[in-house]
Sequence to fold (426 residues):
Amino acid sequence: MTETATPLWEVFIRARNGLSHKHAGSIHAADAELALQAARDVYTRRGEGQSVWVVRSSDIVASDPVDKDMMFEPTASKIYRHPTFYEIPDDVGNM
Amino acid sequence: MYSQGLIGADGKTDEDEAFLAAFQERIDAEQKIEPNDPMPEGYRKTLIRQISQHAHSEIIGMQPEGNWISRAPTLRRKAALMAKVQDEGGHGLYLYSAAETLGISREEMYQQLLTGAAKYSSIFNYPALTWADIGAIGWLVDGAAIMNQIALCRCSYGPYARAMIRICKEESFHQRQGYEILITLCNGSDEQKELAQDALNRFWWPSLMMFGPSEGQSVHSQQSMLWKIKRFSNDDLRDKFINATVPQAEFLGLKVPDPELKWNEEKQGYDHGDIDWDEFWRVVKGDGPCNRERMRTRRRVESEGAWVREAALAHAQKRAERQAVAPVAAE
Ligand SMILES: [Fe+2]
Ligand SMILES: [Fe+2]
Fold:
């Protein structure tokens, strides 16, 4: 058994031009080059991608689910950010 | 794999009532649970066990079929079998990643497999003796896996459900290539048809065992259902599999090796004979036809590959160090 753990990488794939890269999963690899090769083998065996990003999982900064309310609640209370908040007479037509 | 992964699972948990009730409310509202969400310890442990054993099954499952790659009868069959075995390796990797999101390391899971602390599906302890077995494995073993995995696509744990969706998309080719092998054999000579019948005779019962024993009133199983880790009982999935598979056997002109199998008009499904659960437990506990060989192979591959992993890590470290030193030297 190898003693050192092989680093974990997150894999993002652009299915085709015009779409953004989307998280596909993760893989283990010793370095960036091997990570790209492994990502291709594991996540694009059937033409799922045109482009692959790999990012060291330890480099990702994530919000804590526990802070969910504090982080995202304000979007729910600021209804004036949505178009339906404003009253425009029907006569004006589509706006 | 699949439901067998829940055998002996310890869903015991000791969070307070309010925490468990709030969690259950999320589950009942069909909210997916994601990696860092608060979750009961029993939920986390049960999932680690099921997902990691599912992963081990995919990896060990490469062995019986891998044995036939070099002996595939045509280039077409060889390409298909190689692609299938490669897919199974990929399935193992998706699943290991999903389990890792629950806080267990890849190395720890490998260790559990190699020491025998973790199990894998009983089915992969049966040998693939003839080319017809490759057909039967695709048709029956992947067929049973699909039945289980489609149900798991709606599992409450997000990463597991997503891995299942990906896997299910790939599985259908596995089953079709297996069935196609059997169609070819069944349209061939008497000897070839006999080979197909023999494969069905040997793989039928072990395939039914893949769904795991009847749960009856098992508390663990009820907890898993409540948490929506599993959504259907082992018996329900097995019946679904039988109902789907018997007509396919008839199409091939093969006979399902169960004299008690008969259509039950009332329940609109088949009744079947007793499954030999003694055999099942023997195989699960390590005494199947190939348990030792499978583990021996897995351990050998792990130790023979160690120098490659070590070299890759040493190379990565050397390059990282050089990169760190270079700017200093330039100053
Ligand atoms: Fe698979
Ligand atoms: Fe498969």
User: Anything to note?
Assistant: The beta strands of chain A are 8-14, 22-28, 51-56. Chain A has a mean pLDDT of 90. Chain A touches chain B at residues 1-2, 4-6, 8, 25-31, 34, 41-42, 45-46, 62, 64-66 (CB under 8 Å).
